[in-house]
Amino acid sequence: MNPYSSYSYEKSAAAKQPSSLITVLKILALALAGLAVNVLSVIHLLKFFKGMVASDLLVAFLLAAAGFILTTLDAFFIKNFGAVFLVTVVKTATPLVLFFSTLAPSGIMQKESVSLYVVLVGAAFFLTLTLSGIFSSKSIVENSIRIKFFLIAKPALTKTMTGFAIFTAAIFFVSYFEWGYWNESLGKKASDKIMTALNPVASTIIPGASFTMKTDDLLKVLAEQELLKLSAESFKKDNNDSFSLDLLSPAEREKLVVKATAEIKNRLESLPAIGRLNGAEPVYDTLFRLIKKYIADFQAKSGGILFGISVTFVFFFIIKFVFAIFYWLIDLIAFLIFKILLLTGFGYVAFESAKKEVIIV
After folding, report:
1. DSSP designation for 114
2. Model pLDDT, residue 121
3. How far apart are CA 114 and CA 104, in angstroms?
4. Which of 44, 115, 149, 230 could tie 60 with a disulfide, CB 3.0–4.6 Å?
5. Contact assessment for residue 274 and residue 282, using Cβ atoms and an 8 Å cutoff
6. How far apart are CA 70 and CA 164, in angstroms?
7. 357-360 and 348-351: which strand pairing?
8. With 90 as the cut, is the pLDDT of residue 70 above it?
C-alpha cells in the first residue's frame, strides 16, 4: 500500500459523477462527525480541568485525534473552498456553546470577566490555523498531478493540532486562573497521581527509590548510592585510603550510611529553596510542599497574571510535545481511513485530464 502511488479507479472524472444530493449528504456526514468529536472532546477537557480525572483526559485526547483525522479528510473530500470554510467554522464555533452551559461558571458573561475573551481568542486561533492547514493541503492537491496522501495531509494535520493545542491552553488558563478550579486539594491529588505513576522511572534512575517511601528512607537510599560510588572509585585508585563498603560489617556499614544520610539532609536543608525537611513524611508530600512553596514565591515576585501566562505557555508546549509524539500514529490512521473510504465507495480517485488525478465524492 504505497501512499505515493495513484489511487485511480475510474478512467476519467466524467466517467462516474454522483448526484449533487449524494455529494451533499457525504459532506454533511463528514461535517457532523467532526462536529460531534469536537464538542465531545471539549466537554471532557472541561470535566478534566474541573475534577482531574485521568479518564476524562484520555477520552478528550482520543476524541481530539479523531477530530484531527476528520479535518484532514475534509481537505481531500470537500472540493469546494466555500464548503470547507463553512464546515470548519461550524465545527470550531459550536463547542463555544459549552462555555454558556453548566460546564462553565455562570459569570463568564460578566463584563469584568476576561474568560470569554480568552476562550474566543483561543477558538479564533484554532479556526484560523485549521483553515490555513486545510487550504494549504487543498492547494497541494490542486497543484499536484498525483494524490500523495502524506504530503497533502501534513499541513492540515499539523496546523489543526497546533490550533487545538492553543485552544486547549486557553481553556486551561480560564479554568485555573479565572474560574479558580485549581486549589491545593486538586493540586495534591494530581501531584500524587503523577508521582505514583513515575515510581518505575524513579527506581530505574535510582535503584530502590520511590516517591511513596518516607523522605528519610529516600535520603538513606541516596547515601548508600553515593557510598557505593565512592567505594568503586576508591577501589580503582588502589591506594592506602581506599575502602570497600562490602567489606564492612553490617553495624559499621549502617553507621556509615546513617552518617552519610545526615550529611545529605543537612546539605539539602541549608538550601533556602528547601529548608527544614520532615523525614517521616512521604516523598511525594515533601515534593508537593516544595513545589507549592516555589510557586508561591514565584507568584509573589512575578505577579499572578504573569505566573498564569507562564504556566499556560508551559502547558501549551507539553500538549504540542504529546501531539508530536503521536503524530505518526494519527497520520497513519488517517491514511488507513482514507483508503477504506475509497474502497467502500465514499469517494474515488479519477483522471481529470490525461495525467492529473482528482478525488470525486
Report:
1. -
2. 92
3. 14
4. 44
5. no
6. 14
7. antiparallel
8. yes
